Amino acid sequence: MTPDRRRLLLALGAGAGLAATGVLGGGGPLARLAFAAPGPGSGPGLPPPSGRFVFVLLRGGLDGLHAVPLLDDAHFRRLRGPLLEGPAPRPLDADFGLHPALDDLHAAYTDGALAIVHAVATPYRERSHFDGQDVLENGGTRPMGLDTGWLGRAALAAGCGGLALAPTAPLVLRGAAPLSTWVPSPFDEPGDDLLARVAAMYRGHPALSATLVEARKAAATRREVATAGDAPPTGMGPLPDGTEPAAAGRRGPQSLRGRPETLADHCALALSARDGSGPAVAVLEMGGFDSHAGQAAPEGRLSRTLGALSDVVDRLRTGLAPVWSRTCVVVATEFGRTVAANGTLGTDHGTAGVCFVLGGGVAGGRVFGAFPGLAPGDLYEGRDLRPTTDLRAVLKAALHATLGLSEATLAETVFPDSAAAAVAVPPLEGLFRRG
For a tag site, which of 60, 136, 170, 383 has the least CB within 10 Å? Predict the structure, then answer.
């Protein structure tokens, strides 16, 4: 083996070790892969936006009528039947309530920080998870119609970087904008001696050297933000709120890897960087919403998953407090579910559902969207909640409010299939406060 080849392999191995142990992600139990060279704000000659945008993607098809049910509707009671058993929803207004597991969302709604859009859907009208998620993420009108994501195109247009809280970047964030990924890692953090050796090895390589310097700065920032206390377990530092990983979260202890609450903590930490060097947009994914059976069980999977979503929202709201006034969090899924219960006490793939919009500038405490009703003639194809609001209208309003993108850019670049006059999709009016 030649010296040059040996040096290359050592460099690759050390780089992989750093990624696995967390140095490339800012310290602590994480692994970040940063393949895009320019940092946030290095888009097409634009200054980075002051706003922050987080997209929480719920995979599996959340039942919007389970999360945000009608309080007193004869058709709803008749079609839902056994799905109405269990704890009563928390009232939102005269018409709608909120599932009791979504307590943090209810608090945000009461505070005016949460708006709900009901009977919302993408342009997709079939019922395949794979195709529905593709349309949700590509921002177009059909599966495989675009090979980049609407948030990736928005980040490029705004001149900012993005963060995916996942091992690989989901389609929604793909594009030409700078991009990083982050997931927790169970490995120990590297010691000072290893870091010094790697720094010496990288000294002659500007890109690798700069990346290492950036990562070590991020690690220092994380240690500064984390609450001081007793030494954490090896390789598992305290979370940004100071709690230990095994004890954090009201829904019970879980392993650190894959915990959505942990991802939400790091997302908030990254987007609220004090020096403004962090990304401006982020994507966080959650699964477990495909509720074909046992949907209404108080301690069942869907109730636990909704509880985890509530924790995620609370952690984002708390962690993003320094920038909350200019932050927007949108929570959406690929499609809703059937209105009627199926034979296994669940619901099957449907059409319209619900999305949640949170932030300091959101005109919250209100349910948006024209609800179509649940009489037999009102249902889509005789079985689903009929869509009345295009999800792209919600996303356009949010991206304009946070990233400052013009309506023309949103219609022509971010959601290009929404520009045609026959299918014009303007931003949803009134979703954000003016001024």
Answer: 383
